[in-house]
Amino acid sequence: MTINYKPLMLSAFAAVVLSSCGGNAPILSTPIENIDNTPIKESELTEAEAHNWGHLDLVKDTIPGMSVDKAYAEIIKGKKGQQIIVAVIDSGIDIEHEDLDGVLWTNTDEIPGNGIDDDKNGYIDDIHGWNFLGDAYNEQLEMTRIAASGNTSIARYNEAVEKVEQDYQRALSNKQRYDQLYTQVTNAHDVLSKHFGKEDYTPKEVSEITSEDQKVVEAKAAATMLYGYGLTSMTEAKKQLKGGIEYFTDQLNYNLNKDFKGRTTGDNPDDFNDKPGYGNNNVMPSVKSESHGTHVAGIIAAERNNGLGANGVANNVQIMSLRAVPNGDEYDKDIAKAIRYAVDNGAKVINGSFGKSFSPHSEWVRDAIKYASDNNVIFVHAAGNDSKNVDVEPNFPDDNVDFVEISDTYIRVGALAPSYGTKMIAGFSNYGLKNVDVFAPGAQVYSTTPENEYDTKGGTSMAAPAVAGVAALVWSQYPKLKASQVKQIIMDSGLPVKSKLIVGGDANNIKSLSEISKSAKIVNAYNALIMASQISK
């Protein structure tokens, strides 16, 4: 299933719902022997910390960030480095966003709006990238497409048919449950708002209610239950439930609907060479809710310290927008074409915050990943949000066949939560000793969303661009490094956490980082820059 649109159990609350009813001194790296002695942060994150936690320092702030702010303050300072093009293969990106409009890649070999392929790269008027989806947004899951084909010769056909039916019934049941809960929460909120004479009442005020009105008593009980799930307001509860309703509605109407036809580009997605240049040059989101690509782009490159909402990891990048990820599962053809477009048009880093469990043309994407590697380009991929071991259960795309890698520049990233300690691995994050390279901040990440707005989202979709940003930052400062060296630096320079961690959100599944990732480390930009400086000498 597509990583970016799977809600991360819609917060802890929804998980319960679904289951129950410097200077001249030498620069020193973080002393890794002290990492496991770092105190656990007991207090709630301030708003500033919550909006920037992925950039904070584990030792200084007791938050498992990537030490980005420390790197700028003590290492980069005023140095800009060499500009790096980062391709974001995702949903549409709001290229007019106030925090992104200054960091866009522009194809200077193309004359805008003349309807001619001036640079002869096969794409007409591709000024800021390309849109491989055309006018489409909603799509089926890959297993739904396989089941709907009726082609029993397709690999895993029977598995797809069975899983589509199971998931459809589950989505139907969950939507009904969310509808009921949304009505209950809305009614309780209306009662409490009337009782207080305002809508922004606090949990403390609710706890102090004394009333003989049965409706108020019932509303207090409902609110108290929700607060116990970690929510701080009934408005937030309504938002979470509404998101769940929309998600399951999309599953029923599009993702798991075997009769739905979403593709509008006129090509044959099962023929890699059919209709070259399909799609169009409009890389903007088709609707405001198509916010994922904009959020990812902001994590990498939102303009730093400009007084606006978010800071990107990298300070000297251009974002190339490649719209290829719909509200459903991406087509292998689109992803393979997008990777090759990025490589051929100068990208040095490619971010792929998408993924699925079925991939009928996985070899097309794998070949494209090798093409990137052969051309000295890094491909950063999100590990997925199914709380599973991807060494055992497939998650595409990948860079190997039976664990024999075809690329030395592919990085697969798991997600961290903003809490140092046993719960540091985000409960939704996939993992795998052989198939997940590193972990990086991915839960509760604040970044750009369409129409000059900002929001908090979570997923390995957010962890991947954090690492793509670090790759661009390191490469910008040390441009003579090879892509494979940048990857190895990111893996080797991270912070090793040796304590036991809860994995997959399962309190009974306790493992160390060395058991769930290849590097056994969490990414650290500060240390990566130090190691890069040493290797570049």
Automatic annotation (TrEMBL):
Which residues are in the Peptidase S8/S53 domain? 81-493
List the InterPro entries hit by this protein, alphabetically: Pept_S8_subtilisin_bacteroid, Peptidase_S8/S53_dom, Peptidase_S8/S53_dom_sf, Peptidase_S8/S53_subtilisin, Peptidase_S8_Asp-AS, Peptidase_S8_His-AS, Peptidase_S8_Ser-AS, Peptidase_S8_subtilisin-rel
One Pfam family, please name it.
Peptidase_S8
| Signal sequence bounds | 1-25
Quote the catalytic residue positions: D90 (charge relay system), H292 (charge relay system), S461 (charge relay system)
Keywords from the UniProt entry: Coiled coil, Hydrolase, Protease, Serine protease, Signal
Chain segments annotated as coiled-coil in the UniProt record? 154-181
- Entry protein name: S8 family peptidase
- Output the lineage of the source organism: Bacteria, Pseudomonadati, Bacteroidota, Flavobacteriia, Flavobacteriales
